[in-house]
Write a structure and sequence with these properties.
The protein is of the alpha/beta class and 755 residues long. Helix content is 50%, strand content 18%.
Length: 755
């Protein structure tokens, strides 16, 4: 027996979604997929995020061509005199640099005096770290298939013994060469005795001010681990910085849960509120030893995004008339190395997510400084966990497949694109806010197309069975390629509707008939097209919907389930902005003017389809719509642009209005209190406010039938403010009532018939 289509359709959608999820999950485990995520997906996320501010605590002193020219020394940094590096260390130390790292190889001896001068400067500074070059085998993918994984290290090449013994520490830092993109680094160099890399060494030295607090924190969670640790900087230097760091790493490796316990203890303290900087630094030190050894670089931007000082300028820091760019180095980490806009073939250049198509790459010292900055801020890229990765791909596949399967082709395409945009926006947001890295390639470039085309193929088979019903329904409402759902369950859509609370804005052009006589139909059509573009935009910006358009007038509505002040406010703001838009529009034409009148009212409206036979229109009906239209016409009497009912403006703040009277509009039995919308309150001035106050006094006198007093005050308004339509209206009306007073009980209501 065949199942009912309406019962089987959701099940089929779930089946397709599950298949899409499983396929995506399976593909994600292949090496090429992981490489694509790292090289394409990660690159897209960085591009969407763009550059971000680098921490101010990190400064690069660039060995560059400009400095070699200024200092009149060889362009090759290996040939720079080491006495120059000694001068630089002395200058940086005098300026208060916390740690100085040289990403320069000092393997061979040079001038005896230069080498000794360099060594003496390092011994005095006691904060200089030298890089150790590594001789590595040819880079190739490891078992994980990750192209950035170094297969093995042959040996470490130590700096010149004189210099190595004078530095506070030496450390390696190997990065893969082109054509592989540098996305990762090691805090401890695997394949080289698990030695700390020099960004990690520099960071540990930089964090020495919190070392005592670190030891106390360690002692709280594991007292037996602190006995052999050095207590101060002198002891650390005597024991050896690298050995000290490796001892700390050994402690964390021996007790895998120690990181979690230390972070918990740190969170329970009040350090974050007492000293936020110290808290952040201490937390980062704990994570240096406890988190994964291999980390993803969270780049800050293209070359020189991190604060960079040319070498020759660094030599004159603090001197009067010295460097062009004076930067304080007190308490900062300084990285010295080749750093300029590098071509791919240049030494120490690397291919990264911010490398440019013209071959401009980023330098190794900037990557090292980036790694240090990530440690300092605790902002390495964090790929989502394996369980989260599996769950995400299954759910995404289920969602895309299900949505595409239950929708028609156009809706499915829109939904697939919309969902993909939302996913990408969410992934980019997480990437930007907390450096969380969500997969991009498999969900968006594999699962989404697979879900869409799978649904299209599946739906195509079933469409032929439902074609007649679809054509019948689409003939009333939708295009031929949209939605199988309507074909399965045709409803009577002709008379549907709902009663809602709404605000109606009615606007039309004064003198449209005369204008139409002076222009050809095509010219008039082009003009009105531009006019409606200008006047519809404020309605859209304030959440309104244009529901009717006839000739020179249009009707816009705002709707809600119940009366809401915000709805009325949006309608008022839209009305004011429509008037502004008309003024701007009129200024764009030399010999043309389209004065526009606007009426706004709020109340209950019926929203639904109106029509008969084979033609229906969707729109509002009711007294609220009629009243808005009548107030639009009232502008002709009062010489105003924007009028609104008291129901609309009642208790609305931030909008300057003035009551212009109580009128019995054409065709209405009940009077309406009408206000003129003047401007936003912040746009008003004292002159306007005084005029409104005088107008209110004049209106009060008018209602008391004190015609002379009212006339005098209305004249005062015109004398002080020039042309004022409502004031002129009342001056004439007072003269009329003075000669022929209104009959019957007087309530201040002015009966009007539309002109």
């Amino acid at each position: 027996m065949m199942s009912h289509p309406m019962m089987s359709h959701p099940l089929k959608a779930l089946i397709l979604g599950l298949l899409v999820g499983i396929v995506g999950l399976g593909v994600s485990f292949f090496p090429f997929s992981r490489n694509a995520e790292e090289n394409i997906g990660l690159g897209l996320l960085f591009k969407l995020r763009g550059p971000r501010p680098a921490p101010s605590e990190v400064v690069i002193v660039s060995i560059d061509k400009e400095s070699s020219e200024k200092l009149n020394i060889p362009e090759n940094p290996d040939k720079w005199p080491r006495s120059l590096h000694a001068r630089l260390i002395e200058k940086l130390f005098a300026q208060g640099a916390e740690v100085i790292t040289f990403d320069v190889h000092f393997i061979d001896p040079r001038s005896h005096d230069d080498d000794n001068s360099f060594a003496d400067a390092m011994r005095k500074a006691r904060n200089v770290v030298l890089a150790e070059p590594l001789t590595a085998r040819e880079i190739a993918p490891g078992n994980s298939g990750n192209l950035t994984e170094l297969h093995s290290i042959v040996k470490i090449v130590k700096p010149l013994p004189l210099l190595a013994s004078s530095a506070v520490a030496t450390a390696p830092f190997v990065l893969p060469r082109i054509p592989f993109k540098v996305n990762q680094y090691w805090t401890f160099q695997t394949g080289a005795g698990d030695l700390p890399t020099f960004p990690a060494v520099a960071f540990q030295l930089f964090s020495l001010p919190v070392y005592e607090e670190f030891v106390r924190l360690l002692g709280k969670v594991s007292p037996n681990q602190t006995g052999n640790l050095p207590r101060n900087a002198e002891t650390i230097t005597a024991r050896g910085v690298v050995k000290w760091i490796r001892d700390l790493r050994g402690i964390f490796e021996s007790e895998p849960l120690i990181t979690e316990r230390m972070l918990t203890e740190l969170e329970s303290s009040n350090l974050s509120s007492v000293d936020a900087k110290k808290y952040r630094l201490l937390k980062s030190v704990v994570k240096l030893y406890g988190d994964a050894n291999r980390r993803y670089l969270n780049y800050y931007g293209p070359p020189r995004t991190i604060t960079t000082i040319p070498y020759y300028q660094a030599l004159t820091l603090g001197e009067n008339g010295g460097s062009e760019k004076q930067i304080s180095l007190k308490g900062k980490a300084v990285f010295v190395g080749l750093s300029e806009i590098l071509l791919a073939e240049r030494k120490d250049s690397f291919y990264t997510v911010f490398s440019q198509a013209n071959g401009l790459f980023i330098s190794g010292v900037e990557i090292a400084a980036t790694a240090f900055s990530n440690l300092l801020e605790d902002t390495p890229l964090k790929p989502i966990s394996a369980p989260s990765h599996i769950l995400l791909l299954l759910i995404w596949g289920l969602l895309v497949g299900t949505v595409c399967r239950i929708s028609g082709m156009a809706v499915a395409a829109s939904a697939a694109v919309g969902l993909s945009i939302l996913y990408l926006v969410a992934a980019a947001f997480q990437f930007k806010t907390d450096a969380s890295w969500y997969p991009i390639v498999v969900p968006l470039f594999l699962q989404t197309p697979l879900g869409f085309f799978g649904a299209v193929l599946w739906n195509y088979v079933e469409t032929n069975k439902e074609r007649q019903n679809v054509r019948k329904a689409l003939g009333y409402y939708v295009p031929n390629d949209v939605v199988d759902l309507l074909a399965k369950n045709i409803v009577d859509m002709k008379r549907g509707g709902q009663m809602v609370y709404g605000a109606c804005l009615f606007a039309d052009v004064a003198g449209y008939t005369t204008l139409s006589e002076k222009m050809s139909p095509q010219q008039l059509s082009d003009l009105m097209h531009k006019y409606f573009e200008a006047t519809f935009e404020p309605v859209k910006q304030h959440g309104g919907l244009v529901v009717n358009l006839k000739g020179d007038s249009f009707l816009a509505i705002w709707k809600a389930v119940r009366a809401e002040p915000d709805l009325r406010r949006q309608a008022c703001l839209a009305a004011l902005d429509v008037a502004k838009a008309v003024h701007r529009f009129n200024k764009s034409f030399d010999n043309l003017n389209l004065p526009t009148r606007v009426g706004v009212h709020s109340g209950q409206i019926f929203l639904g389809n109106i029509g008969a036979g084979d033609h229906y229109e969707y729109g509002p009906t009711g007294d609220t719509v009629n009243t808005a239209s009548r107030m639009d016409g009232l502008n002709k009497y009062l010489g105003t642009e924007v009028l609104a009912s008291e129901e609309l403006v009642d208790q609305l703040d931030g909008i300057m209005t003035r009551e212009v009277g109580k009128f019995r509009l054409k065709g209405k039995a009940q009077p309406v209190v009408v206000h003129e919308l003047l401007c936003r309150m912040e746009e008003s001035d004292e002159k306007q406010k005084r005029a409104c106050a005088i107008f209110a006094e004049a209106l009060d006198a008018f209602r008391r039938q004190s015609w002379d007093e009212a006339t005098a005050k209305f004249h005062q308004i015109t004398e002080n403010n020039g042309e004022d339509g409502p004031a002129h209206f009342y001056i004439k009306l007072c003269e009329q009532y003075k000669k022929s007073p209104p009959e019957g009980p007087w309530e201040g209501v002015i009966p009007l018939e539309e002109k």
